[in-house]
Write a structure and sequence with these properties.
CATH class of the largest domain: Alpha Beta
Number of helices: 8
Strand content: 5-15%
Order of helices and strands: EHEHEHEHEHEHHHE
Largest sheet: 7 strands, parallel
Shape: globular
Structural class: alpha/beta
Number of strands: 7
Radius of gyration: 18 Å
Distance between the termini: 28 Å
Helix content: 40-55%
CATH topology of the largest domain: Rossmann fold
Number of domains: 2
């Protein structure tokens, strides 16, 4: 299937590591020109070089999108480097506190606000920068990367879970605001994805359980004890990247305002 994306222009926030890199590579393989965003110039340039070496086209758009000035810098760099933006993937996120000790009772209000800025706030900034341009051109894609925690929060990192739930609301509200304009707005919630932080988590599990660096055993432990699902592996960044790429395609123009769980069937609900 030709996804009809060749020559489209995208910015992927938080694309110097993890899921964002997978999204950037998936888009680039379909001929999308990609602006790589993050705070580290070294890591950003490395991703740009990877895409160029694979035959794709990429530019660097540095800036912390959790901050007004950083988001403006990233948006300006993307526009300057690409000549315009057709696709925004709001992937950047995180949490301000310490997940090992955080609960609703001990996260300072300032950390709650910072976490919202890193997730829902970052998405709003980029939507405000690019949504009106897309509307005026009559075509665009705004994709938010939320989390399974948005539907199934745990007792830890409640600020993160709440901010990801807010992204679902922002996304659907934006879809309604841009109805019948040619701009679609959708959200993907990943399950557990094999990234650098998950690799470190596997190592901690192995040390605790006594099997060291055997990642297969740690993965099996996670799937049995932490996140049972209907696919016998955790996800990879490319799994999210390929889902995003389809939603960005003109082939997906009848899909609007949805929340798509890409989690191996880990979320035990109908909606």
């Amino acid at each position: 299937m030709d996804l009809e994306l060749n020559g489209k222009r995208a910015i992927v926030t938080g694309s110097t590591a993890g899921i964002g890199v997978g999204i950037a590579h998936s888009l680039a393989r379909e001929g999308v020109r990609v602006a790589i965003n993050g705070r580290s110039e070294r890591r950003g340039r490395a991703v740009v070089e990877e895409i160029l070496a694979a035959g794709g086209d990429a530019v660097l758009a540095l800036g912390d999108v959790a901050d007004d000035d950083g988001a403006k810098a990233a948006a300006t760099a993307a526009l300057d480097g690409l000549g315009g933006v057709d696709i925004v993937v709001n992937n950047a996120g995180g949490f301000a506190g310490n997940s090992a000790v955080s609960s609703v009772f001990n996260i300072p209000p300032a950390d709650w606000l910072r976490t919202f800025d890193m997730n829902a706030g970052a998405a709003v900034r980029m939507i405000q920068h690019f949504g009106p341009q897309m509307r005026d051109r009559g075509w665009g894609r705004l994709i938010q990367i939320a989390s399974g925690n948005a539907m199934m929060p745990s007792g830890e990192t409640p600020d993160y879970a709440a901010s990801k739930a807010a992204m679902l609301n922002v996304s659907l509200g934006t879809a309604k605001a841009l109805a019948n304009t040619g701009v679609t707005v959708n959200t993907i919630s990943p399950g557990i994805i094999y990234t650098r932080s998950v690799k470190a988590w596997f190592r901690q599990i192995g040390e605790r359980e006594g099997w060291g660096d055997d990642e297969a055993k740690s993965e099996a432990w996670v799937l049995k004890n932490y996140s049972p699902q209907m696919v016998s592996r955790i996800g990879r960044p490319a799994d999210i990247g390929d889902a995003v790429t389809y939603l960005c395609s003109p082939r997906a123009d009848f899909i609007n305002g949805i929340h798509w769980r890409v989690d191996g069937g880990a979320t035990p609900t109908i909606t």
